[in-house]
Write a structure and sequence with these properties.
Pfam families: FTSW_RODA_SPOVE
Largest sheet: 2 strands, antiparallel
Strand order of the largest sheet: 1-4
Strand content: under 5%
Subcellular location: Membrane
Keywords: Cell shape, Membrane, Transmembrane, Transmembrane helix
Membrane topology: Multi-pass membrane protein
Number of helices: 12
Oligomer: single chain
Shape: globular
Radius of gyration: 22 Å
Order of helices and strands: EHHHEEHHHHHHHHHE
Distance between the termini: 8 Å
Protein name: FtsW/RodA/SpoVE family cell cycle protein
């Protein structure tokens, strides 16, 4: 017999409040960072504009229900691949697709600024992976080792195509985000551990072996096309102070900034350590120096809260497609946070991944807000799932 579930509002005000707190923190830290940064741009004003556009985009996406998102998923994925393909085929000396910081990852649109297609491709890939998994389980109600392997192949191919284009830009950090999304969604896809354990165990072993060779015998990796500057990135991560005049400069400055902030920080605007890109990729270093361990802990707690809120939404819904989307968004945000903060404290190599909702970045912020719009859509259309056939 059907029984009513708890009364759940259509708007998740908890997520909205969390995002508002992140926006306030973002604007405060960016304002401080831009006063001593290497650019003369008013990043605070631009961040407000991107937050506004992101809020509008989230509201629009919230109006689409599950069926509409499913129908749109492959079209959005195709558009994203088309944009990545155009970037790959375009000369890197064109004003529209010029190479910046060693990567050809952006479209430079007059009046709109730089747009990074790979940021939006993350969400498009999540939607397609969620649809593939849902459709697979509808088609194959009786699970076998063969059907699970076929699902793994489909999810892998959908993820590998954008990764291939992004690696050619080259952009290793963003490629790793796609890999994190893939792994997160595979773990909840229902694929048997008889497949996952040997496959991912083998991948982990190969990755560890490559890292060990890179550290102990780097000359053997030259046959695989690994460049000298990529070796230096690994060395500067393992021993940043030896390479602090070049590749290790940012990491050394980040460690000094965060370490000097100690428990309570030096106070707003009282930064002493010069940090390149302090408003974007290394915004956590700025936060750590000015607001110390307490400020950093508050930001990390907000991310834990946001992930908990998205997890709760995913568990509440009775729509498998929505649940898989929540998993993908959680995987994306969690990896961004772990990688960004990890690289600022020397735990992980520097990859140029922004801190979600905090770092300055138009494409990153807009795509993350769009992802939140999809999560808000789940709650907004929750009325279809407020009754369960069994309790």
């Amino acid at each position: 017999m059907a029984s009513p579930r708890r009364n759940i509002p259509k708007i998740d005000y908890g997520i909205i409040l969390t995002l508002m707190l992140m926006m306030i923190i973002s604007l405060i830290v960016i304002y401080s960072a831009q006063t001593t940064g290497q650019y003369g741009t008013n990043f605070v004003l631009q961040q407000v504009v991107w937050y506004t556009l992101g809020g509008i985009a989230a509201w629009v996406i919230m109006q689409f229900d599950s069926d509409q998102l499913r129908k749109m998923s492959w079209y959005l994925y195709g558009i994203g691949l088309l944009l990545l393909c155009i970037l790959f085929l375009s000369p890197d000396d064109l004003p529209l697709t010029k190479r910046t910081n060693g990567a050809q990852s952006w479209f430079f649109i007059p009046g709109a600024g730089a747009v990074q297609p790979s940021e939006f491709m993350k969400l498009f890939t999540i939607l397609v992976l969620a649809r593939l998994t849902t459709d697979h389980h509808v088609k194959f109600t009786h699970k076998t080792l063969q059907t699970d392997f076929w699902l793994l192949i489909k999810l892998g191919l959908v993820t590998a195509v954008p990764i291939a284009f992004i690696m050619m830009q080259p952009d290793l950090g963003t490629s790793l985000v796609f890999l994190a999304i893939f792994l997160g969604m595979v773990l909840v896809s229902g694929i048997t551990w008889k497949l996952l354990v040997p496959i991912f165990g083998g991948i982990s072993f190969i990755a560890a072996a490559v890292l060990l060779i890179a550290i102990k015998m780097p000359e053997y990796l030259k046959f695989l096309g690994v460049k000298q500057y990529q070796f230096k990135r690994i060395y500067s991560w393992l021993d940043p102070f030896t390479y602090q005049s070049n590749e290790g400069f940012q990491l050394v400055k980040s460690l000094l900034a965060i370490g000097s902030g100690m428990t309570g920080g030096k106070g707003f605007g009282n930064r002493e350590v010069y940090m390149p890109e302090s408003h974007s990729d290394f915004i956590f270093s700025t936060l750590g120096e000015e607001f110390g361990f307490i400020g950093g802990s508050i930001v990390i707690s907000l991310f834990f809260l946001l992930i908990y809120q998205i997890t709760r939404v995913g568990l509440d819904t009775k729509n498998p497609f929505y649940s898989y989307i929540c998993t993908g968004v959680i995987s994306m945000i969690a990896f961004h946070v772990f990688q960004n903060i990890g690289m600022t404290i020397g735990l992980l190599p520097i990859t140029g991944i922004p801190l979600p909702f905090i770092s300055y970045g138009g494409s990153s912020l807009l795509s993350n807000m769009m992802a939140i719009g999809v999560i808000m859509s789940i709650r907004y259309h929750y009325k279809k799932y407020m009754f369960s056939s069994s309790e």
